[in-house]
Automatic annotation (TrEMBL):
Keywords: Glycosyltransferase, Transferase. The keyword Transferase applies. Belongs to the glycosyltransferase 77 family. Belongs to the glycosyltransferase 34 family. It comes from Fusarium oxysporum f. sp. radicis-cucumerinum. This is Nucleotide-diphospho-sugar transferase domain-containing protein. One of its GO terms (molecular function) is glycosyltransferase activity. InterPro entries: Glyco_trans_34, Nucl-diP-sugar_transferase, Nucleotide-diphossugar_trans. Coiled coil: none annotated. One of its GO terms (biological process) is protein N-linked glycosylation. The lineage of its organism: Eukaryota, Fungi, Dikarya, Ascomycota, Pezizomycotina.
Length: 312
């Protein structure tokens, strides 16, 4: 997998990146902090309380996957695992224990907190959130988003809808894609987040009410950990939303991380597209590498060709 994608991986310090749709992004020169691959210092974590090995077409089932009927959740897990392999990151699929008094999504900060004890960077994703450009390293994205050595977490803004503002008048952050960096202060943040329903007045309101741990973080936790670069707010269009909402006219297109909250069934399509786009370019590049042996210009020959196809 690594060797297949190696020629396609975008250099971390190459400041300009053009997406598959022709959108140009440039990292400001003073934000190029992460210059070398982080490798196994990074772990991508998929956390779910519903995992089992009996359900067909899932990661834990030993039977071969049938892509024609692949469920959205499996599509997301495959995307994350492939992305980790390409860039040399660790990957973990975690079946988490449910809280008895909270919605299942509350396990995400708890598992991330534990993963931060073994890795310097933990990338937590919902199964309906996928990397759209498999060739683009996380380190490049961290530079684009001004992720600093002192940053605790980064999350994307939610959509600019009235219900997505907190009481302070600020847009809430979406926990479907989180970049967390290990430090004692980060541990303190995640401990506070995990304890929020027990220790912060009013936080238990979000035990089962949507958006659960997401609202708890945006309503309470981010205001306690509010140093200048503690929490990085990623533009919604870059790491939230998707191209399917509102017939493709949504404000947040999920340019780098497509979060398909109302289109979970679309993740296999995005998985296929991301793989085939890269694979087609890889094969095309290989063809041009060997073009002297593979291509013959016989346009000036007359038939029958006396000695067979001419050699280059």
């Amino acid at each position: 997998m690594v060797e297949l994608w190696k020629p396609l991986v975008h250099p971390i310090t190459e400041r300009v990146f053009v997406t598959d749709k022709g959108e140009r992004f440039e990292v400001p020169i003073d934000q190029v902090r992460w210059k070398k691959p982080l490798g196994k210092r990074v772990v991508i974590v998929d956390t779910d309380t519903r995992l089992d090995g009996k359900t067909e077409n899932t990661m834990l089932n030993e039977c071969p996957l049938d892509f024609t009927t692949l469920p959205g959740r499996t599509g997301g897990h495959l995307n994350h695992y492939i992305y980790a392999m390409i860039h040399g990151y660790d990957y973990r699929l975690v079946r988490a224990a449910d809280y008895p008094d909270r919605h299942g999504t509350w396990v995400k900060p708890a598992i991330t907190k534990e993963a931060l004890k073994t890795h310097d960077f933990v990338i937590s994703l919902d199964s309906d959130a996928v990397f759209t450009h498999l060739d683009l390293p996380l380190e490049w994205l961290m530079n684009l988003w001004d992720y600093r050595p002192e940053t605790l977490v980064a999350m994307a803004y939610d959509l600019d809808w009235e219900q997505d503002y907190d009481p302070q008048g600020n847009l809430i952050l979406n926990t479907g894609f989180v970049i967390a960096q290990a430090s004692q202060r980060t541990q303190d943040m995640f401990q506070r987040w995990e304890d929020c329903p027990r220790s912060v007045p009013g936080c238990d309101h979000w035990n089962f009410k949507w958006a659960h741990e997401q609202s708890a973080f945006s309503y309470y936790i981010r205001y306690e950990f509010n140093r200048t670069h503690d929490v990085k707010n990623i533009p919604c269009n870059q790491a939230n939303g998707n191209e399917f909402t509102l017939d493709g006219n949504g404000e947040c297109q999920g340019v780098f991380v497509s979060h398909n909250w109302k289109h979970k069934h679309k993740t296999p399509e995005l998985l296929s597209r991301s793989i085939m786009t890269s694979l087609a370019r890889r094969v095309h590049g290989q063809f041009h590498h060997d073009i002297k042996d593979l291509y013959i210009d016989a346009s000036k020959e007359t038939y029958p060709i006396a000695d067979g196809l001419p050699k280059q």
